[in-house]
Amino acid sequence: MLTIAVSKGRIYEEALPLLAEVGIEPIDDPKTCRKLILRTTRDDVQLVIIRATDVPTFVEYGAADLGIAGKDVLLEHGAESLYEPLDLNIARCRLMTAAHKNAPPPYGRIRVATKYVKIAQKYFASQGIQAEIIKLYGSMELAPLVGLADCIVDLVDTGNTLRANDLEPREHIMDISSRLVVNKAAMKMKNQAIASLLDQLEKNIAQKN
Ligand code: ADP
Ligand code: PRP
Ligand code: MG
């Protein structure tokens, strides 16, 4: 049996067509069903539905053989103990700094609100900017509006969330997409099944790009 960890929401929605192309279609729909383990049209493959930030943990411990996670989540988690063989090119966005549209450029020691503490620390250090990082779990865009922080580090896609909150994108830190990750022991023990799945996925993705 192969277990694949995916998060509900955009990763699930965008991964579904890729998985369907390799014959993996969940039998239940996580939107309407409270099951956390989903059987699929392939008897040897099941999906587990977890929070996006938990995907590296499940795969690292071998609770899932494979997982689909954003590069942002993988970098922040520090997923060195996982294989990351495939860029699925889904859930694409940019990790950026953003500030109030009228705010001056950063000067001196600045306060930064983000859920990406490690990435932000590394980024500001590389820029020679002294930054105090304030860890948040969501609604980062609010922080500059209420004086909690000078700027934020967050994901930007259309820019609608920034615009709706009078913020503007400033520095582009990196491009983000979702990756397939694999447990190292599973890669050995279930090599045939995993290698053939990787091969099929890779061919389909290459055709699209
Ligand atoms: P969460 O509940 O953790 O925010 P999401 O489904 O919003 O879960 O995000 C999962 C992953 O999708 C993120 O780690 C990121 O890689 C990507 N992502 C998040 N927001 C966007 C977005 N607005 N557009 C495209 N991809 C995104
Ligand atoms: C993400 C991200 C931004 C927004 C950016 O939030 O944290 O707030 O998308 O996308 P945009 O540039 O197209 O507006 P998400 O929709 O995932 O909400 P949540 O993580 O706070 O639930
Ligand atoms: Mg989100």
Structure in a nutshell:
This protein has 209 residues and is an alpha/beta fold.
Describe the protein:
This protein is of the alpha/beta class and 209 residues long. The protein folds into 2 domains: 2-91 and 177-208, D-Maltodextrin-Binding Protein, domain 2 (3-Layer(aba) Sandwich); 93-176, 3-Layer(aba) Sandwich (D-Maltodextrin-Binding Protein, domain 2). Helices cover 31% and strands 32% of the residues. It has helices spanning 10-21, 55-60, 71-77, 117-126, 160-164, 184-189, 191-208; strands at residues 2-7, 37-39, 45-50, 66-70, 82-87, 93-100, 110-114, 131-135, 151-156, 167-176, 178-183. The strands form 2 sheets. It has a 6-stranded mixed β-sheet. A 5-stranded mixed β-sheet has the order 8-7-9-6-10. Helix 4 (117-126) links the parallel strand 7 (110-114) and strand 8 (131-135). The two termini are 30 Å apart. It binds adenosine-5'-diphosphate, 1-O-pyrophosphono-5-O-phosphono-alpha-D-ribofuranose and magnesium ion. Residues 7, 9-11, 52-53, 70, 72-73, 91-93, 155, 157, 176, 178 line the site of adenosine-5'-diphosphate. Adenosine-5'-diphosphate binds at residues 7, 9-11, 52-53, 70, 72-73, 91-93, 155, 157, 176, 178. It comes from Crenothrix polyspora. Its EC number is 2.4.2.17. Belongs to the ATP phosphoribosyltransferase family. Short subfamily. Heteromultimer composed of HisG and HisZ subunits. This is ATP phosphoribosyltransferase.
